[in-house]
Amino acid sequence: MRIGTKAPDFDLPDIDGKNTSLQSLAAGKTAIAIVFTCNHCPYSVAYEERLKKLQAQYADKGVVFVAINPDNEDRHPEDTFDSMKKHAAEKGWNFHYLRDKTGEISGAYGAKVVPEVFLADSAGNIRYTGRIDDCWQSAKRVKRHDLREAIEDILHNRDVAVKTTTPIGCAIKRE
């Protein structure tokens, strides 16, 4: 996904029992953080609390987070839709969690690993892609808050200073 291109729309099942689209999420928002993730990957699990904190910090500033699980549930039974519901409830997620069972949407974005972030502005243009921060092992050791910095740039009507970083995580296993 190239910086400046329109984020591909989606309409996927949400753990709340309804379908959620990019268009519905973007309505009235300043930025949308689309995070491809899953239940089983240790990198994804390591970032769950940080994503919750970011959503809580930026919700009232017009930023919405959505997690999308593209992993093959036959290879990873912990990534079934029912497991997603249970996982998000146990962890107290405060953002949408969608199922991309076929991997079509993650493929449209060009996502290769989980977690991988695509940050779009209110017009749906991709402004940042890559990692959440520079230390998946420990929030205390983070030196670069890449996603947070990109969000701040969008909120302050600035060009995103660092547009792309290399995400680190587990390879996506599509159907």
Number of DSSP helices?
5
**Number of self-contained structural domains:** 1
The class by helix and strand makeup works out as alpha/beta
Mean pLDDT: 96
| Beta strand % | 15-25%
| Main sheet summary | 5 strands, mixed
Can you tell me the CATH class? Alpha Beta
CATH architecture: 3-Layer(aba) Sandwich
Number of strands: 9
Secondary-structure element order, as H and E?
EEHEHEHEHEEEHE
Assembly level? single chain
> CATH homologous superfamily?
Glutaredoxin
Main sheet: which strands, in order across? 5-4-3-7-8
Q: Output the radius of gyration.
A: 15 Å
CATH topology: Glutaredoxin
The proportion of residues forming helix, as a percent range, comes to 25-40%
Distance between the termini: 21 Å
Which overall shape is indicated by the principal axes computed on the Cα atoms?
globular
> Spans with pLDDT under 50 lasting ≥5 residues?
none
Could you characterize the architecture of this molecule?
There is one protein chain. By secondary structure, the chain is an alpha/beta fold. The chain has one domain (11-171): 3-Layer(aba) Sandwich (Glutaredoxin), CATH 3.40.30. The protein is 28% helix and 22% strand. It contains 5 helices and 9 strands; from the N terminus they run ββαβαβαβαβββαβ. The chain has helices at 22-26, 42-58, 81-91, 104-109, 146-155, and strands at residues 11-13, 19-21, 31-36, 63-69, 96-99, 113-114, 116-121, 126-130, 170-171. The strands form 3 sheets. A 5-stranded mixed β-sheet has the order 5-4-3-7-8. The protein has a two-stranded antiparallel sheet with strand order 1-2. The radius of gyration is 15 Å and the shape is globular. The two termini are 21 Å apart.
